[in-house]
Design a protein that fits this description.
Blueprint: H1 5-24, H2 26-33, H3 36-52, H4 56-76, H5 83-104, H6 107-140, E1 143-144, H7 146-155, H8 160-170, H9 172-183, H10 186-200, H11 205-222, H12 230-234, H13 245-248, E2 256-257, H14 268-279, H15 285-304, H16 310-326, H17 336-358, H18 368-406
Antiparallel strand pairs: 1-2
Helix pairs in contact: 1-5, 3-5, 3-6, 3-10, 4-5, 5-6, 6-11, 8-9, 8-15, 9-15, 10-11, 10-14, 10-15, 11-14, 11-16, 14-15, 14-16, 16-17, 16-18, 17-18
């Protein structure tokens, strides 16, 4: 959109003032800038920035801004230095420079830059408020349903979180790698979104909306069946001292009081990396490789750290499918593929929550039942998603073909 010079100057002053205030705020520094999750979320802005507007000059400005923030905070304000703060400084510098480039770009170039800057700003903002939403959930639900989820996992007769957790204990390098991928979730989201912007321009917006909306939507489901993860239930007993199936089969399942923010079911980390993997189709081999690496190690990290039960990952499939269908705006609301994906995703997620809450004992009849339920859920979700993706891609390609036909001949 056109901007007059006065408006550009006003927005520039506001953006610089906001960045300076955030960078020099002790409260913001201690609450956010030193956080690993928030620091990497801020740093992911650099990926979108330099992919959409590749420039050595901008890279050097980001580096200079990083050292400027560090000098002010560490030398002048005497904040306690932290490694993650450096990532935050770099991301904050990139966000500032990206915003200034966007405002002062020509009208022809501003549209592309806006596709990168606005989502970057929204994603960082959502990450900042994520902890508040989780704390609210823990306040509303002081008791959690971890024993129900643990009972289901045990009905499989293979307690996967404990097995992967034991592997993490035996191989610290594997644990460290898993944690890096787990904490760095914002990196593949930024990478894949930027790749889609370069490939599809504004047609990439639905994928960003799906990434952004997954968090708040997931919190809604957290409140339906709040749980924390086996590490919170077993404490030092995780992962080496699981209850044997013979004891778990007789376990009295009931809500229990545990301190912490419920974030177990569905696993939003799993849902996000599924969306990353699905949306990476059509991008380069190395982008697909990064997406798959995050998918693989996130599966390990979510359960190996004891933050999730195996069933949390299963329920993430229909939940992620629902989010993709909700945001598939290239298809009509009544499109058969979109309706099928949306209905199966929503009902599949709700059905799992209801079964775990009210009928978890049924799964103990035979291990065939829980394994079949997991396999059918995953397989059906993948089939619905594949059909949804093909329909959405065809619509995008048809629209691009029509636009090319209508373009004036120079």
């Amino acid at each position: 959109m056109p901007l007059n010079r006065a408006m550009k100057i006003l927005l520039t002053l506001a953006l610089v003032a906001a960045a300076a205030w955030l960078g020099a705020s002790a409260t913001f520094y201690n609450e956010a800038l030193v956080s690993a999750f928030f620091g990497l979320a801020l740093a992911s802005v650099i990926i979108i920035h330099l992919r959409i507007r590749p420039s050595w000059q901008d890279a050097l400005l980001i580096l200079a801004g990083t050292f400027l923030f560090a000098s002010v905070d560490f030398r002048l304000l005497h904040f306690k230095p932290a490694i993650m703060a450096w990532f935050s400084f770099a991301g904050l510098s990139s966000l500032l420079i990206f915003g200034l480039r966007t405002m002062w770009a020509s009208d022809a170039n501003r549209k592309l830059l806006l596709l990168g800057f606005v989502p970057s700003l929204l994603f960082v903002t959502s990450e900042y408020y994520a902890d508040s939403l989780l704390r609210w959930t823990s306040t509303v639900h002081p008791k959690v349903f971890d024993l129900y989820l643990f009972s289901f996992d045990s009905s499989l007769y293979v307690q996967l979180p404990f097995l992967v957790g034991q592997a993490f204990s035996m191989w610290p390098a594997l644990r460290a790698t898993g944690l890096i991928f787990y904490i760095g979730l914002a990196i593949p989201i930024a990478l894949i979104y930027a790749g889609r912007v370069l490939r599809m321009r504004e047609k990439a917006i639905p994928s960003f909306v799906a990434f952004l909306a997954t968090g708040p939507a997931g919190v809604i489901f957290y409140n339906m069946l709040p749980a924390l993860g086996p590490a919170h239930v077993f404490g030092n007993g995780f992962p080496w001292h699981p209850l044997p199936a013979s004891q778990t089969a007789r376990l009295l399942v009931e809500p229990i009081a545990l301190s912490g923010a419920p974030n177990a079911i569905p696993s939003l980390h799993m849902a996000w990396v599924l969306l990353v993997w699905w949306y990476s189709r059509g991008l380069s081999w190395w982008e697909r490789g990064v997406a798959f690496a995050f998918l693989f190690f996130t599966v390990l990290a979510t359960i190996g750290t004891g933050e999730h039960y195996f069933v949390d990952l299963v329920v993430a499939f229909p939940f992620a499918l629902m989010m993709e269908a909700l945001c598939a705006v290239s298809l009509a609301w009544m499109d058969r593929r979109r309706i099928t994906a949306l209905v199966f995703g929503l009902l599949g997620t709700l059905a799992w929550l209801a079964a775990l809450r009210f009928a978890v004992r049924v799964f103990w009849i035979s291990p065939v039942l829980p394994w079949t339920a997991c396999a059918v859920t995953v397989a059906a979700s993948l089939v619905c998603e594949s059909q949804l993706h093909r329909a959405a891609e065809k619509t995008v390609e048809d629209d691009a073909g029509e636009a090319q036909e209508l373009a004036p001949v120079s």
